[in-house]
Hints:
Strand order of the largest sheet of chain B: 3-2-4-7-1-8-12-11-10
Number of domains of chain B: 1
Shape of chain B: globular
Largest sheet of chain A: 5 strands, mixed, barrel
Strand content of chain A: 35-45%
Order of helices and strands of chain A: EEEEEEEEE
Helix content of chain A: under 10%
Strand order of the largest sheet of chain A: 5-6-7-9-8
Radius of gyration of chain B: 19 Å
Number of strands of chain B: 12
Shape of chain A: globular
Largest interface: A-B, 48 and 40 residues
Oligomer: heterodimer
Structural class of chain A: mainly beta
Number of strands of chain A: 9
Amino acid sequence: MPAAAAAPNPLARLLRVAGDGSARLLGGYSPTSGRHHFPRSELCPYTGATDVEDATLPSTGRLWLWTAVTARPPGYGGPVPYGFGVVELDGIGLRIVTRLTEADPSALREGQPMRLTTESLPGADGGTDDADSGADDADHGADDAELVVWAFEPDRG
Amino acid sequence: MSGASISGVGMHPFGRFADRTAVDLGAVAVRAAIADAGIDPGSIGASFCATAYGGVAAGHRVLGRLAMTGGPIIDVEAGCASGGAALQLATQAVESGRHDAVLVFGIEKMPRGVIRSSFFEPWQEQAGLHPAPAYFALRAQRLVREQGITKADLAALVVKNRAHGVDNPDAMFRSAVTVEAVLSSRVICEPLHLWMLCSPNEGAAAVVVTRSASAGPRGVRVAGISLRSHLPGSVLGEDSPLAGVDDLDIVPPTTLAARDAYDAAGIGPDDLDIVECQDTDAARELMVWSELGLCAPGDQPGLLADGSAGIGGRRPVNPSGGLLSKGEPLGASALGQVVELVRQLRDESGVRQVGGATTALAHVIGRGANACVTILQR
């Protein structure tokens, strides 16, 4: 166990990572609206229906839209460029905003199979000096903690 | 119910002003609007201050500087649409008969670069799931794919707006650009290059709204104004959700607001002589054209190529140069559009004058989501 008192993982209710490193997104489903959503919400975010059930979301999908972020945005200490896009999950039609492991937009194509994975990101202060993030990071107390976030990678399986 | 008209406008130029505070900028714009209206400041019944980053009691600090406190002063935040939201409240306050004259102003000093916002949780910033240009880029890619628009068309939109901005003394960028130069600027988020994105910056704008009956011959009537938010579901919505569903049947907030405003004014898009609309990035303006009903989806390149959307064309869009020329001080940007259109409708726009314009539309869309459409007539 880590020696320091760990800050609560802000993604604990969005992403479950098993001991072997495999990950699943944690969403919700309303039988009344017939729609899945993410992150899980008390009410269906599309209809307000109250019959929301837990739903472990499919870990495969198809690439819908993508780009790459080439300049480090404020509050972000990870690598650049990084892939960013929307993947439509197989079978349920839900579209997820996600990091992409591929940071070259020309290497990706519409509809290509994608698979859920994770990426580990440093706090904003863990990166190189960045004029954009400036001194206003002082209020981000947990900046040093690594964050494990969902990402999608091309599924070449 | 009496109608509401704009009887005075004022601006502080948009740009970067290291030696001036947002309050300084606001005081300049408010004084200019009061003078333009020729109104006694003591007759202002209420004031609305649009700002996203101005902090606590921003409006009080501006009006305190001008000895104009005592009445209600209400700060309004609605992202890029803050000024539109404030103008709607002011219009309602006059139309209802509660006040004869209301002041609306917007002020902002934006940090440089990508906008940092309390809108996102810190973890979302740490994960890199927040940069506005990345969301803009995904919408742009979809526009390119689904409406047959090319990167050269995106660049041509920038060329149009920057050409308009050359003669606008209130704009930050006043040099013309070429398609080749736009496409040579560095890629920020494919397909968007640096020059296709507006620069967050600083500025202020103000308008005085009065009963139409007392607005005088220079008055410009607020024929319709509507602020709307997003319907749920679109993964690309300006509410920046982490997920969404198929959105083909989800009406975007710009269209919701436009329908309301057209209905209130009793006109349609074909009746417009001049338009100022949100051009946070080049793709956004092209999307807005179809969302406002200015053209069918996919017809944008033709309107760019034949000059219809330029000054001198059938219906100029962003004759001010748009945000691509002026930059975007969030709280002030919507009112900056209104200042431009009021001056155009009064025939006071010099070399940028659009001849014979009597009906104009202003549009903003941004985080929230918030969209506002204002129709002005003279």
